Every structure is written in C-alpha cells, then in structure tokens.
Prior knowledge:
Helix content is 41%, strand content 15%.
Amino acid sequence: MTTLANQQSIVVGIDGSTTALAAARWAGVLAARQRVPLVVLGVVPLVDYRIAASAWAELDILPSLRAAAERNVAAAAAAVRQDQPELEIRPLVVDGDAAHALVQASAAARLLVVAATPGNRLTTLLLGSTALRVANKATCPVAVWRGDIEHPLPDRRPVLVGVDGSPDGEDALAHTFETASLLGVDIVALHAWEDPDLLRWTVLPESWPDLATQEQELLAERLAGWQPRPQSGRGPARRVDQPEPAAPRPVPGHRLQAAGVNPERIAAQGK
C-alpha cells in the first residue's frame, strides 16, 4: 500500500482566517482528485476560568466560541463545495486545543492540511505556531499551506522535495511522487550538503569538484529506485534532474546548498 493509496480522508484545519480558508480550497482539490472525503475541522478553544469574570461569563463565552467555530467551518465547506461540487465534505467541530485536536485527527487521515501562521516571523515566535506543533507530532503526512489566498488552487509549479537518504526522507519521496502525479506536475529533488568544519579542516578549492560529484552521485543513488506512479490526476510526474557542479561555499547554482536544512525553518519560511 502506498502513502496515499487508502480510503482515509484528507483533514484540513479551519480557524476563521483567510489563509485557512484558502488552505481548505487547496485541500479540496487533492481530495477531489483522490476521490476521498474532505474533513473540515474547526476547534472550540478551551477557556481558562482565570480569564473569565465569573462562572456566568464562562458559560456565555463558550456558546459564542462554538457558534464562531461552526460558522468558520460552514464557510470553508461552502467555499470548497463551490470549487468541487461532487466532493464529499464532512464538517466537524470539536472542543480542545487546536494542535492537539489536529494531531488526534491525523491518526485517521491520509493527509493533514494546516495553514501557515499569518504575519511575520516575530509574530510566529511570540504566539507559537500550531502548524509547527502539528507537523512535529502528526502521524500522517502534513501539508503546511502558504500561498496566494486569492488564487489558492494548485498550479503548474513543481513539487520540491529534500533528499537526505533517511527513512523519513524515503517516505517523503513516496508522498512527493504520488502527489506530483496526482497534480500532473514535475518534481525537483534537492540534496543539501555541508562543507567540512572550517575550524578543523577544509577541502581545498581544487577538490571542490570531486566533493560536488560525490554529492551528485549520492543524490542520483537516492532517486534511482523511484519512478513516477500514475494516479487519478492529470498524468504521471516527471522528475527534473539538472546536475550542475557546485562549490561548497558560495553556491554557484540553484540545486545544491552549502548549509544543512532545518525542517522547522522550511515550514516557517517557505512560500
């Protein structure tokens, strides 16, 4: 069984933001092409009694929060239904912490879609990021959506995947090939490598081509067993390979990078 080849639904988290609404429309495209239901999930946050003026105030707040969550979910479901009239959409509102609820939902999902935190990086650092918490703890693949909220549906741009040879990296490759085939787009495989520790020893300039060749061979080895898999989308994906020698630092190309890749930085900064 492949990463997406099952009957589980796609789950998208909704919080009332325009970014989450756009993420829901994007998720609707994937669900429609995979012919699986889309769960539109809203969460009623827990209210700390310490912030309520009284128990009566607490009782008044909860219905308002639930009503708002239900409105947000209904609006997202309506937007998706307008794009995908044949898609089965399952609205769902639960109580609790948003990240915890999404992680729980991931146990029965083939894909979990969350919107990136709007605003600048300082806002993300100060307020925390539900998206990053979910990406770190979910038990299914997670898509952190960040894009043009006015035009959120998938276009012809390729899918970018990082290749490091780890077991998690192999799972990422499997998911990438299936998703790219589903969308009918190309794949760009990125292998990021580090130069040796300059405080201890380094590679002489004349050795850089040899080091770059070794890393290119490693990338080719990791991709050797992967072939596009036809899906029910627009056609098979095409792997884009454009080998180009690169020195460790600086990088005179567009595929190899001199620094290691931090997944949390990608999730927070990717556009």
